[in-house]
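Exercise 3.2. Students should predict the tertiary structure of the chain below and write it as structure tokens, then compare their answer with the key that follows.

Predict this chain's 3D structure.
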Amino acid sequence: ESLPPRPPPASSSGVLQTITTVNGQTPDVDALLNNFVILDYLWKSDFGDDPSDPIYSYAMGPKSALEVGRRQIIYFCSEILDEQPDPTMLQELEEDENGTQTQTQMQATSTTQ
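Answer key:
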């Protein structure tokens, strides 16, 4: 694959943090997640009620959807967890892809007529 070893520098939306380690072994997960948010690979939402104790939820950002795709994420996660991919997730993905293909075909047909 011809992917660069590191993503391009962040835009004006933020500055990449240096990824530090704890005890020289474990990466700082918060810094890693923040870098992915800055680079638009993840979306971060705070859904906690207490501002002093935030609870965050992460979702695929626009870059990850374009560069990797939902199907690859589903299979990657199932491989890490040593489980089979969730059939309902795969079915939802198929329905989304078929709906998108149908809409694209309808648009192409209407523009050629």
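Discussion points: The chain is about 45% helix and 10% strand. The longest strand covers residues 42-46.
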